Structures
1.
Amino acid sequence: MTVGIGVIGAGMIGQDHVRRITDVVTGAEVVAVADVDAARAEEVASRVHARALASGQDVIDDDLVDAVVVTSWGPTHAEYVLGAIEAGKYVFCEKPLATTAEDCLRIVDAEQASGRRLVQVGFMRRYDAGYRAMKQVIDSGEIGAPLLMHCVHRNRSAPESYHSDMAVQDTAIHEIDTIRWLLDEDIVSAQVVKPRRTSNRFEHLQDPQFMLFETASGARVDLEVFVNCRYGYDIQCETVGETGTVRLPDPESVWVRGAGQLRANVVQDWKQRFGAAFDLEFTEWVSSIEDARPAGPSAWDGYAAAVISDATTEALHSGHVVSVLLKDRPAFYG
Ligand code: NAD
Ligand code: ISE
C-alpha cells in the first residue's frame, strides 16, 4: 500500500517534509500540495509530480489523499486538523497543535468523538537517537529517580518578527514536550527569570530567558533559551538522578587539529541537528498509518504542551511562579 499524502503549507519545513516523504520514506507519496501562496504550492508540487490544489480544505477533501501533513503557520493548524478529523483522515501537524489551549481541547474532543487516534504532533525530538538513548537509561532505573534536568536551547539568530512570548511558544515548547516524555510525568509549575539582554537582538526581545519547571514528583528543570547566540544551533540536556547522570551527546563532528588549534564544528540550524530525527519521525508515522496503530506524540500531548506554554508565558509577564492546570487525561490517550 502507498499512503497518499497531502501537504498544507509549502514553506520552509513543508518543503523539507515533501522532500523527505519523496526521497527518504518508503510506502508514501506526496499527491497534493496547497499554500496560500499559490505560486509556491505550484512550484513545490511540480518538484515531486504532485498536484497543487487551491486550498487546504481541498487537500483534505481530495480522494487521493489518505493522510494530511499540516505545515502552515501555527494559527491555521486547528482548522486543518479539525477538518482532517472530520474527514476521518490521519493528520500529522507540525508544532504547535494549535495556538490556544481551547483549540487543542476542541481537537482532543473531536478526535475522541471520532473513536480513533488520527492526530500526531510534530515533536520530533522523541525520534532523536540521543534523546531516545537518554530515555532508555532513565527508564532502566540505572541512574535512580530523576531529580534535576539542565537544558539549553540556543539558536544562532532570531528575525525581527520573533517576540518574547515565542521563546516559550515556538522554541521551549520542544523542551516542554521532551521533559514530559523523558520523565513520564507532567509539569506542574513554571517560572521565568529575565537575565541581562544580549546586544545582538531586536530591541523588543527579552533574550536570553531562563525558565524553571517543576514536575509532579518534585523534580526541577532549568532551561536556558537563547535565540541570538550567534555561534550556531546548540541543544543540550542533562538529567541528574539519585545515583548518576545522563547527558545528550553533541552531534557527530570530526576533530580538526591545525594552526595550533583543536576544533570541532557546531551545527547551524534545526534542519541539520534534527534531520535524522525528522526522517525517523515520518518513517514511523507512515508505518503507523499502514498498521492503523498511531503511536507518536498525540493530540493530548499537544494540548498539555499548550497549557504549560500558556502558564510559562504568564510567568514571563508576571514574574511569578505559575501553576499549570491540566484537565484529567482521558483513558482514550492511555
Ligand atoms: P514558513 O513561513 O516558512 O511556511 C509556512 C507556509 O504556510 C508558508 O508558505 C505560508 O504561505 C503557508 N500558509 C500560511 N497560512 C496558510 C493557510 N491558511 N493555508 C495554507 N498555507 C498557508 O514557516 P515554517 O518555518 O515552515 O513553519 C511552519 C510550521 O512548522 C510552524 O508551525 C512552525 O512552528 C513549525 N516548525 C517546526 C520546526 C520543528 O523543529 N519541528 C521547525 C520549523 C518550523
Ligand atoms: C523553530 O520553529 C523550531 O521549531 C526550532 O526547532 C527551534 O529551535 C526554533 O527556536 C523555532 O523557532
2.
Amino acid sequence: MLIYVVNGPNLNLLGTREPEVYGKTTLKDIENELKTLAENTGHEIRFFQSNHEGAIIDTLHEAGTINKADGVILNAGAFTHYSYAIRDAISSVPNVPVIEVHLSNIYARDEFRHKSVLSEVCKGVICGFGEKGYMMAFDFLTRRIKLMRN
Ligand code: DQA
C-alpha cells in the first residue's frame, strides 16, 4: 500500500514563508509526522516536492503508471489555480485517487485563490486545517484502501 505526498512551488519554504498564513511547521516536520503515521499503520509513503510544473506532472505519472500508488496527497501550491497541465495529469491516471490539500483556507483569501482548476478531477479537497490537512488526507486514503481490500 503506497501513498505519494506531492508538494508544489514554495512549499519547501514552509516554516519561514508567510508564517502568519502557513504556520511555523516546516515541510520536513509534516513529512516526519506522515512517515510516523505510515510506519505505525504499515503503509509505504513517498515524498516529493518541486517548484517545477513538469516535475510534478512526471511524479503524478510515476505514481499512477509505474508504481501504481494507492493514493496521492497533492498540494500543488499556486499551480492549483491555473495549471491545466497538472489537471490533465491527474485525469490521465484515473486509477489513483488524488486528494487536493491546502494549508490555508483558499476561500478566505485573495479572489484568484478561490478557484482551483484541479478540484473537479480530484477525489476530494481539504483546506484550511493547516498541516493537519495532510494527516486527514492520509487517514482517508488508508481507510479507503482498507475498505477496498476487504
Ligand atoms: C496553498 C494555497 C495556494 O493558494 C498558495 O499559492 C500556496 C499554498 C496552501 O497550502 O494553502 O502556495 O496551496
